[in-house]
Amino acid sequence: MPAMTDRPRIEGRDIVCVGFADWDTDLQTNQHHLMKRLAHQNRVLFVESLGLRRPQLAGRDLKRIAGRLRNGLRGPRQTDGLHVLSPLVLPLHSSTAARALNRRLLPLLVRRATRKLGMRRPILWAYVPQAEALLDALDPELVIYHCVDDIAAQPGIDAASFRAAEARFARRADLVLASAPGLAERLRTVSDNVLYAPNVADTDMFAGALRDGPVDPALADLPRPRIVFIGAVVSTKLDMGLLVALARARRDWSFALVGPVGPGDPSTDVSMLAAEPNVHLLGRRAYEQLPSVLRGADAGLIPYARNELTDSIFPMKVYEYMAAGLPVVATPLPSLSEIGGIATASDPEGIAKLLEESLASDTPQRRAECSRAASAHSWDRRVEEIAAAIDVL
């Protein structure tokens, strides 16, 4: 293995990252993990979500709009070792007039921020293709399109305008990163330089679940076995009917869902889950608290529905569960077909049987081996892989 100093690096660069979420959000995603690490040796400006989904004038969306107005008026702010810009753009991407206005507003706001920070010809690292509006304004030295979701398949998105923008931007990008096989396959039709780069994990942090320590108090109060899901509780991804059927088939098991309800899908209805006495909606936890949740779990569950959106997802929780040493049972997502150590079934009976087998064969030695195997899939390794791809451009 080469010495650490010989490994590919991205350092001493200016990076403008256009994300698909806000920086201060309930769930940390690919963009948060990579940009935090890149900010250690680079100067990073993170441009928050451009509001791809048409907002609803209620609850979570109203709160987000108020926060965006407050942050957008004060320019870039410094947090977590990088700079964050909340651009004031119109989240009406199906409107020709709104798109035209955004094409003028976004470059103006981002160019002003980069000048203030002294950035010149930065890397443009975009998680959404609407960043094409910045190409002329920034004159980037390198363009990266990082596709981690089939965003056009999400409810409330103007799919036609999004896919058209994505095709244009992917053709222009010097490097395209795709986190699921389906995304990579689709993007290879418009780009000759696509790197398949699945979501990974902070494996060192999650391996801490194997060591003695506190267990999340709410989880510790539940009877065993405890079957745990961590992540967004949203009807666009979770198979609610499967979860209900599974809970009814195994009344002596505890099913704990740990994460916020409805991010990106405010219409999510969890009443059918809440009605089951052995299904427990424990709410969100800070990212750093998740090892204490998994320390008290007996198995990790990925009960995703099969639809256009989930067929192009590589769940981040895969390697988080595995780094924590947990047995993992999932519905058969295309992205998981070649991942060793994950048992899959498409129906409640099959899922229950696989969980029973996993619980029966679980040992401390097996958990340690699983965690060691997952250690190869860390964010630091992913940064090195991307750096190597950039080096050959």
Give the overall silhouette: globular
Rg for CA atoms: 21 Å
Mean pLDDT across the residues is: 91
Count of runs of 4 or more consecutive helical residues: 15
Structural class, judged by helices and strands? alpha/beta
H/E series, N to C?
A: EHEHEEHEHEHEHEHHEHEHEHEHEEHHH
Q: Enumerate the spans where pLDDT stays under 50 for 5 or more consecutive residues.
A: 53-58
Distance between the termini: 24 Å
Biggest beta sheet attributes: 8 strands, mixed
Fraction in helix: 25-40%
Which percent band covers the strand fraction? 5-15%
Strand sequence of the main sheet, in spatial order?
Answer: 3-4-2-1-5-6-7-8
Number of strands: 14
Overview of the molecule:
By secondary structure, the protein is of the alpha/beta class. Helices cover 37% and strands 15% of the residues. It has 15 helices and 14 strands. The protein has helices at residues 30-38, 59-72, 96-117, 135-138, 159-172, 181-187, 203-207, 217-220, 240-249, 271-274, 290-295, 317-323, 348-361, 364-374, 379-391, and strands at residues 14-18, 43-47, 77-79, 82-85, 123-126, 142-147, 175-178, 194-196, 226-230, 254-258, 279-281, 299-302, 328-330, 342-344. The strands form two sheets. The chain has an eight-stranded mixed sheet, sandwiched between helices. A six-stranded parallel sheet has the order 11-10-9-12-13-14, sandwiched between helices. Helix 9 packs across helix 13 (348-361). Residues 53-58 have low confidence and may be disordered.
